[in-house]
Amino acid sequence: MSKQKKNSQLVYSTDVGRRCPQCLRAASDCVCGKNRPATLGDGIVRLRRETKGRGGKAVTIVDGLPLDGTELKALAKTLKQKCGVGGAIKDNAIEIQGDQRETLRSELEKRGYTVKLAGG
């Protein structure tokens, strides 16, 4: 018989799937309302470069930000201004035109996020 840690929380169960980190119910049955976390990710912001489906032009995708719509929009505007390029928000991720991974990494780390470069 194995001992369980006293401070551990169940984050996934085979009968209900993902659980909300605040109310500990199934993610589909969460009752947190507006206080519900935007994403149930691991807390790491990932930067990746994509060219697929864009005619060979590169974009940098910022994914895993724990922000809601208005905060995400404000951050996207700030990041686009820092890089001096355009971009968009799609599927709760920020797309920045061009390969801007290093610039975005330093800016997000200044804001206190844990950042990893994902992909090639």
Task: Describe the secondary-structure layout.
Elements lengths: L11 E2 L3 E2 L25 E7 L8 E5 L5 H15 L3 E4 L2 E5 L3 H10 L3 E4 L3
Parallel strand pairs: 3-7
Antiparallel strand pairs: 1-2, 3-4, 4-6, 5-6
What does this entry look like structurally?
Strands 5-6-4-3-7 form a 5-stranded mixed β-sheet, with helices on one face. A two-stranded antiparallel sheet has the order 1-2. It folds into 2 domains: 10-40, no CATH class; 43-117, 2-Layer Sandwich (Translation Initiation Factor Eif1). The chain has 2 helices and 7 strands, in the order ββββαββαβ. By secondary structure, it is α+β, with helices and mostly antiparallel strands. 21% of the residues lie in helices and 24% in strands. It has helices spanning 69-83, 101-110, and strands at 12-13, 17-18, 44-50, 59-63, 87-90, 93-97, 114-117. β1 and β2 form a beta hairpin.
Question: Quick gist of this model?
Answer:
The protein is an alpha+beta fold and 120 residues long. The chain has helices at 69-83, 101-110; strands spanning 12-13, 17-18, 44-50, 59-63, 87-90, 93-97, 114-117. The model has no long low-confidence stretch (mean pLDDT 80).
Tell me which oligomeric state these chains represent: single chain
> Percent of residues in beta strands?
15-25%
Task: Using the alpha-carbon principal axes, give the shape.
Answer: elongated
Helix and strand succession? EEEEHEEHE
Q: Give the proportion of residues in helices.
A: 10-25%
CATH architectural type of the largest domain? 2-Layer Sandwich
> What's the number of domains?
2
Strand tally is 7
CATH fold group of the largest domain: Translation Initiation Factor Eif1
Mean pLDDT: 80
Strand order in space, largest sheet:
5-6-4-3-7
Q: What ranges have pLDDT less than 50 throughout 5 or more consecutive residues? A: none
Q: What integer value in Å does the Rg equal? A: 17 Å
Q: Number of helical segments? A: 2
Distance between the termini: 43 Å
